[in-house]
Design brief:
The structure holds two protein chains of two kinds. Chain A contains five helices and five strands, in the order ββαβββαααα. Chain A is of the alpha+beta class. Chain A has two domains: about 80 residues, Beta-grasp domain (Ubiquitin-like (UB roll)); about 70 residues, DNA polymerase, domain 1 (Orthogonal Bundle), CATH 1.10.150.120. In chain A, strands 2-1-5-3-4 form a five-stranded mixed β-sheet, with helices on both faces. Chain B has three domains: about 210 residues, 2-Layer Sandwich (Aldehyde Oxidoreductase, domain 4); about 140 residues, Aldehyde Oxidoreductase, domain 4; about 300 residues, 2-Layer Sandwich (Aldehyde Oxidoreductase, domain 4). Chain B is globular. Chain B has 18 helices and 29 strands. Classes of the chains: A alpha+beta, B alpha+beta.
Amino acid sequence: MQIELLVNGRIHRVDTDLERSLLNVLREDLDLTGTKYGCGEGECGACTVLLDGQPARSCLTPANAAAGKPITTIEGLEKDGALHPLQQAFLDADALQCGYCTSGMILAGAALLQKNSSPQPDDIIHAMQGNICRCGTYPRIIHAIQSAAASMKRGEHV
Amino acid sequence: MSDAVFEKLAALTPDRRSFLKALGGGLTFLLTFEADAQESGANGHHGRGHSLPENISAWLHIGEDNTITVFTGKVEVGQNARTALTQAVSEELRTPPQAIRLVMGDTDRTPFDMGTFGSRTTPTMAPQLRRAAVAARETLLDLAARRWKVGASSLEAANGCVRNPATGKTISFGELTKGQSFVQSIGPVKVDKPLSRSLAKVDGRDFVTGKHRFTADLKRPGMLYGGILRPPAFHATVSSLDTSTAEKLPGVHVVHDGDFIGVTAPNSLAVTRALAAIKATWKTEPQPSNKNLFEYLKANPDGDAASEVVRSSVIAVDGNRPQLWTTYHISYIAHVPLEPRAAVAEWNGSKLTVWTGTQRPFGVRSELAEAFHLPEESVRVLVPDTGSAYGGKHTGECAVEAATLAKAVGRPIKLVWTREEEFTWAYFRPAGVIEIRSAVGKDGRITAWEFHNYNSGASGITMPYDVPNQEIVYHPSRSPLRQGSYRGLASTANNFARESHMDDLARAAGLDPLAFRLKNLTNQRLRAVLTAAAERFGWGRAKVGANRGAGLACGTEKGGYVATCAEISVDPDTRNVKVERVVTAFECGAIVNPDQLKNQVEGAGLMGLGGALFEAIQFANGRILNPKLSEYRVPRFSDLPALETILLNRRDLDSSGAGETPIMAIAPAIGNAIYDALQIRVRALPMAPHIVRG
């Protein structure tokens, strides 16, 4: 069946089995592979995308349930060659090792920053608890989210 | 060009000769291989390709367009080898890192390499690339000197150019290589120590934007998705099979050969459905479970592997009183790389190309060549920068499976293991039993040390403290589960047992754990990290509150020295343990990149925290009982303690690797802190299940 997915501001018409996950449609049909498979049960956060502005586990979201709603993937955060402040903050803090969790971390962190413009470490831990970094860069990710909050307040990236 | 170099070129396969040609003009430097005993981690054989002369370990090319390309068989799995090796070349070639491109882990384009494990990239590959870069720099200076008819010693290299300070004239490296086309073999040259400068991950932008393609992200023309029907238990065999329903599904092919049953389909949901539609019955056999694991390991010595007596002295513990005799139990744990095993396989006639995330591209090439009865030259393995490994990706089973499916259906196949498959069909860090007997004199000096490790391994087994009478033996067992390499190998297990025992001994001797260790330790490098960590932590000064405890531990392995002090809190009702603060001091010789080193030390400590407190594989009758992230707990944000890292920079010493050793001190430091808080000594990894109430 055909559905319309609104991904990163573009409409994609996809002919697909409605039971397929959003994750698989993004990766396999739209070749948006920045969104990762990590566990298939919503436990690791590697597949996080923003659905209607809220962080969602694309591995557990049927593609059909996402139809018509705005979807943001990691590929959509960069605007006109300028990184999202949190992307930049990840680079500045070197908040990654293997980088496999990074897309999901950045989207979960960006969603937090939309709701909370100056998150404290406890807010970040609470919001990011469902995202796993097996390399253990958690302290750097917390630091990156706080630096991004500070630079967004200063208006450096708006 | 010397005859020796001609011989080396002649030994290259036509593919490689044309590849060198494809690099165009410019200068190519072949680095002569220095035999280096690399330790092996995983089971399995090490293949050696024949398509490259064996004595070349890396090459470096400077092109007319100023591009510097470095070829190494090492791979990037998150330890940031790509960044560290780029730095090595950048520093010696006096060129910004942005101008340097590393081609890594491609068996057709990079020289043979045993694999990326054992913390060997920094001590072995980095100095080799430094040599190549120094030789290149000297050649470029010579070329400029000839062009300008001045002495080479009057010139300098800086910012990708050669400069004559007397005249201010500069010429770029690329300009110097124009019209040049030669290959130079490199002899011994003097290299500098690393500059100890922080440099962020060189291609970090590709990761924060999602552009980087891991193996599972690759797409090939005509590619289908693959899946494997797994048996319900290890060592099970098919007794009946009905694939007729699956075969009727649109676009599905079933591939069946003996106990290998796989499917291919146009997308991964179709793969899952096809696998579910196959009806199979299996013959299984009774197998051990983790309930009787430790008895099993002691009762089942590996008949083929002799016990390894690491050290033995004449005088046993008996007669050296008082005695302390303790036993430690170590569970199997999983690596849980966030990117599960994945492979994309493509056949072109009898040539097989496989992209896969592995630490041993040449080893996997051998596995593929053997599986399909091909000469190794007919197999190419490429390793995209991989979503971590931690010692867990030495083997090529996923690559072989993908290639089997691709061969059967005549299309490129992508196979990505599910998390459950990754938990079940890879291999584990060995479980083990460790027994220690020791004696300490009235003066607080250890007089005797007897250490037996059953199955978990010999890494980090030697005694860093000064003890006149020692007997240290590693006894391999027949492991009920498939086991292999892990970050730091057995050093975590051995150090957990040793450093927990040391705390008990200190109490027996009536001494503070730090004072007791220092009394028995002359190794200056280990003393330095231990005192640095204790000083920063405020050991002995800070009074920890109720339901809190402090512990310390240290250890050395693979040329690295680590000490960790931990403070923990315990919930008085549930006895849940939270690690509140961790101070780690680490020394590994001259520091290559302080910030990346700190990143590795922090990450290793957090990974070690999981194995210390809660990670354990549960199994019974050939089945893994907790093969999911909802059932196997790994450290999350809420487990993060306040972390402080002290790096001791020994610029007078060669650099050692740093990805592994920092993991080995956190478990015993936490265990000693638990004892401090509760007066309960937990002699098992993980510890939390032994203290939690309810």
